[in-house]
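To fix ideas, we quote verbatim one protein's residues and fold tokens.
>
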Amino acid sequence: MSELQESGQMYLETILVLSGKMEHVRSIDVCKYMGFSKPSVSRAMNLLKRDEYVEIDESGYITLTQKGRDVADSIYERHTLFTKVLEMIGVPEDIAEQDACKIEHYVSQETVEAVKRAVEKK
């Protein structure tokens, strides 16, 4: 998947989701969405910026770089795929969301592709 740890992947996915809901994403928006402290989010954003996954402008607005968007898109695709599959087999929506969030970070790309093919056959 990526050399990023699960937490970094979650931050990128959160920025992607928030950027679809609001014009500008700031660290405080990430804090509220994820329920994390300002210092934790600030540290994570600095690391993501250092590793060129995000850019942060002088106003504090966070945008994904192409590298960051690629990771975020992949994680989000996995999340929606596994949520859908879990709901298809009868898992309640809220539990499917939580479990998909856990699965998305650890499953191989080969498994993702196989699940996509199986879902497309239905």
Summary: The domain at 6-70 is CATH 1.10.10.10 (Arc Repressor Mutant, subunit A). The first helix runs from residue 6 to 21.
